[in-house]
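We now fix the convention by which a protein and its fold are recorded. Think of the row as the fold of the chain written in a discrete alphabet. Here is one such record, which you should read through line by line.
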Amino acid sequence: MSTQPKFTERQYLVVLVFVTSLFLMWGISMTLGDSLNKHFQNVLHISKSRSAYVQLSIFGAYFFMGIPAGLFMKRFGYKNGVLMGLALYAAGAFLFVPAADSESFTFFRIALFILACGMATLETVAHPFVAALGDQRTSDQRINFAQAFNGVGGFIGPLLGSVILAKGQEHSNDLVAVKHLYIIIGLVVAAVALSFSFIKVPPISDPHVIDDDAYAVAGAEKADVKLFKQKHFLFAVIAQLFNVAAQGGTWAFFINYGAEVVHISDSKAALFFSGSMVMMMIGRFVGTALMRFIKPYKLLSIFAAGNILMCLIVAQGLGWVSFIALLFINFFFSIMFPTIFSLGLKDLGPKTQQGSSFIVMGVVGGGLFPLAMGLIANQSVAHAYYLPIICYLVIFAFGFSYPKLNKKSA
């Protein structure tokens, strides 16, 4: 008799709460990096296109660490993977101290790269970790739930960034606020790592590998297929690359858009950026609820279409109307990363952890796309928002074609 699968099991609750907190932590650093993007333009006097190297440092680390983090996780397990990610995260945060003292953009990028290597490791581990904490049929819900707290971190990051930007406006060469903030971040991350080292992780049978005897038999044939011959996974890697490309570009120039199109201060624009993260949080909670009635791949296509419309409005530069549309991009963007990730991992069997590494590597798109948007933004920051439409068309195509790509999960 068929029963509704549980969200998770009681034995996994403590671990689920902890791993969910990791999503919050890298959400803070991800959006704080976008505030630094504008701060470096002000303080170090660099162009929009050159400031986009902040995103290249962050997202490039995801490409660099994707496979090593996956191999480490496969060899030493989820818990040790988390601890390694937290160690790199803390080390990168502490390197902001000498970077600020030297006032070197290159040094800052090195610190960001190491910190982001930690974020990439956590992300590689946390997604399959959360997916493993229950039935595969509810893995989409668990990942979207955890990603909602990534939105909480995304809300906190710009709030912290607005403080840095306000200090930068008061003092033209102020990097002290940056240094002090990252010292605090490093200490908090180190404390979290120490706490997690004492948590006992119950034995986990990854539901993507074996759910029950029926699943094992049904998935046996597909498990033998080479990873990159599984069309749904391959398209997920491509979709994730374009998804994070759109995210990286949209967030990198959000504050510039507020300053140049709506004519508000950088610190006030950062507060609106924080507000847009609330929109993303709402979108993830709404999306998680809707997935109980609408198949995830269908909802993904609907939200992608919504963002195509929002980008068209933003690109017109219609003052507050376009700025509100820019806020709504995050609402529709909300479910994209976790849903693409989860759909890509479906039915990969023993190749799940390897597949997770490659999907994380697709995040490099967030480092490359802002460079192209920055070149256009040097002339018109509004017109730069035509480019993400390409990305959302790819995501729409992935969701629309998913039933044919993976007939078993559809």
User: Anything to note?
Assistant: Residues 210-224 have pLDDT under 50 and may be disordered. The two ends are 21 Å apart (CA to CA). The chain has one domain: 10-200+222-405. The first helix runs from residue 13 to 43.
